[in-house]
Specification:
This protein is α+β, with helices and mostly antiparallel strands and 416 residues long. The chain has two domains: 284 residues, Aminopeptidase; 114 residues, 2-Layer Sandwich (Alpha-Beta Plaits). It contains twelve helices and 16 strands. The chain binds glyoxylic acid (GLV) and manganese (II) ion (2 copies). Glyoxylic acid binds next to loops. One manganese (II) ion binds next to loops.
């Protein structure tokens, strides 16, 4: 048993209620293929946020919102001023996202609170369920949890723009999501996050729960390649300065760099824009993203060096100008040893077999871990698919993950 922490106790979880909450939440931004498109600070996101706040208030929570739109739903404890036990995740999704990435962590937290109410349990410490703003980084580059953890300055997140040029702060204000609470102004005893695995290991092993020990390092870049626009018919091939051809060579190099760092080095170009994007004009400029991940600092550094080298080689051709801009860099992290052990103990108490697992996905918890003890629970998703409208999980696995989460939170919430 982990020292200084109450004993985890199993709490009855209502699997059906948890499942229906997911289905109801998934109506906001539902796509025709059964997925969800609920990008941050859109009308769909606003509706999802409202639904969560309604549910939380009905469960007896008081709701506060901070300056970047992070929503804190608090169930009071016997000691109002004691640092709370926090759980949560995000409600925003990818453009072709699913019903579970992010939503599960928020709704599992809500189910813990509802189950505590059913059992008439008053905890010593308050419990906070948090819906962190813009975890996906798909519409705006920086997330509310990173701002909360002090890793991104408020003005930097406010000034991020989406592809249409809308500023984060303006989008936040437009949906009425800019709150009064100062960003980062809350002290947690501990942070837990439940999430779907987004990979194939738990399903392969026939397990319903994974205890997450740590997460990948990641570097995100924006690249701009500038050539010269020209006539697609009259400009001879050897006189061209085609930005798209140069970008295409770099994109292929990124794939090679990922492949040269097995088994877990990965490198992705997920977004690319071409200007002027006209059939009969040689492309004058291209912008694209690079997402680079590795489980170790050394691997991350080696891949980052390979990216710089590839850019230098392309520059040496003398046909284009290239800017490689590092958006952010996160070193690999280990979650808090005591909380990880507490989650293992909780799984044992609940009679749920589990394994340790390492996350190659990014999560709100990766930022929060820099501020207070943090750990995560994973449940399987079908075929390991995520960031895909086909993303799927079972009611029974979602409930098992929530049982483990609840037992650990309860132990921590009774901690003196
Ligand atoms: C978050 O979804 C990530 O990119 O890992
Ligand atoms: Mn997520
Ligand atoms: Mn995601």
């Amino acid at each position: 048993m982990t020292e200084g922490v109450g004993k985890p106790a199993a709490l009855p979880i209502n699997a059906e209620r948890l499942w229906h909450s997911h289905m109801d939440m998934a109506r906001h931004g539902a796509t025709s293929k059964g997925g969800v498109n609920r990008q941050a600070l859109t009308q769909e996101d606003a509706a999802a946020r409202e639904l969560f706040m309604d549910w939380a208030r009905n469960a007896g929570c008081t709701v506060q919102i901070d300056a970047v739109g992070n929503i804190f739903a608090r169930r009071p404890g016997r000691y109002h001023n004691a640092p709370s036990v926090c759980t949560g995740s995000h409600l925003d999704t990818q453009p072709t996202g699913g019903k579970f990435d992010g939503a599960y962590g928020v709704l599992a937290g809500l189910e813990v609170v509802r189950a505590l109410n059913d059992a008439a349990i008053e905890t010593r410490r308050p419990i906070d369920i948090v819906a962190w703003t813009n975890e996906e980084g798909t519409r705006f580059a920086h997330s509310g949890s990173a701002a909360f953890a002090g890793l991104v300055e408020l003005n930097r997140i406010y000034d991020c723009t989406d592809r249409a040029g809308t500023r984060f702060e303006d989008a936040l204000t437009a949906i009425g999501a800019k709150g009064d609470l100062a960003c980062g102004d809350r002290v947690f005893d501990s942070v837990f996050e439940a999430h779907i695995e987004q990979g194939p290991l738990l399903e392969r092993d026939g397990l319903s729960v994974g205890i997450v020990t740590g997460a990948r390092g990641q570097v995100r870049y924006d690249v701009s390649v500038t050539g010269m626009e020209g006539h697609a018919g009259t400009m001879p091939m050897d006189m061209r300065r085609d930005a798209l051809t140069a970008a295409a060579r770099l994109v292929v190099r990124m794939e090679e760099i990922g492949r040269r760092h097995p088994p877990q080095g990965v490198c992705t170009v997920g977004a690319l824009t071409v200007a002027p994007n006209s059939r009969n004009t040689i492309p004058g400029s291209v912008r694209f993203s690079i997402d680079l991940r590795h489980p170790t600092s050394e691997g991350l550094a080696s891949m980052a060096q390979a990216i710089s080298d590839a850019v230098q080689e392309e520059l040496a051709r003398g046909r284009t100008a290239i800017e490689l801009h590092v958006l952010d860099r996160e070193e690999p992290i280990q979650f808090d040893d005591a909380l990880v052990q507490l989650l293992r103990d909780s799984a044992a108490i609940c009679g749920i077999p589990c394994r340790d697992i390492f996350s190659m996905a990014g999560h709100d918890s990766c930022y929060l871990a820099s501020k207070q003890p943090t750990a995560m629970v994973f449940v399987p998703c079908r075929d390991g698919l995520s960031h895909n409208e086909l993303e799927s999980a079972t009611a029974s696995d979602l409930a098992d993950g929530t049982r483990v989460l609840a037992a650990a939170m309860l132990a921590r919430a009774e901690r003196v």
